[in-house]
Amino acid sequence: MISTRHEITVAAPVEDVWRLHTDIAAWPLWNSGIERAEISGRLEVGASFRWLTHGLDITSTVAALDEFRSITWGGPTSGIDGMHRWTFVPTADGGTSVVTEEYWTGAPVDADPEGMRKLLAQSLIDWLEELKEAVEGRIGT
């Protein structure tokens, strides 16, 4: 098993960050690492969504959701089973601290744990940076 945790502060209220981040169908509009994303129905525990990222066609299922605070999803793809948690915490200055934590298990991970950890870490760092840029860019316009 590998895991990674990353954090960024966004200069925007938690509600704005949450709304952009949980609008799954809009991910490809601001996240360059996601080619396609679609969800049928409401975003709620048990809901599934499908997305294509870095050549991986993933179907994720929402495992936990606390509106404006946290969301956890997971699922298997290409021999990897992953669980991804996002936490959103208001900061004293009106911004939002966004924490992302993810773990992977499976044969590809066992075969190259450090390589897989590096790939996972970079994808999450990129996601956080693009989320920050997208939210702050919307507020500035």
Computed Rg: 15 Å
Q: Estimate what percentage of residues fall within beta strands.
A: 35-45%
Secondary structure: number of strands:
7
General shape: globular
Work out the helicity level: 25-40%
Main β sheet profile: 7 strands, antiparallel
The number of distinct helices, counting runs of at least 4 residues, comes to 4
H/E element string? Answer: EHHEEEEEEHH
Distance between the termini: 42 Å
Overall SS class: alpha+beta
Average pLDDT number: 96
Largest beta sheet: strand ordering: 1-7-6-5-4-3-2
The parts where pLDDT drops under 50 for at least 5 residues are: none
How would you sum up this structure, described in words?
This protein is α+β, with helices and mostly antiparallel strands and 141 residues long. It is built from four helices and seven strands; from the N terminus they run E-H-H-E-E-E-E-E-E-H-H. The protein has helices at residues 14-21, 27-30, 107-111, 113-139, and strands at 2-10, 34-39, 48-53, 56-66, 70-77, 80-90, 96-105. Strands 1-7-6-5-4-3-2 form a seven-stranded antiparallel sheet. Strand 2 (34-39) and strand 3 form a beta hairpin. Helix 1 (14-21) crosses helix 4.
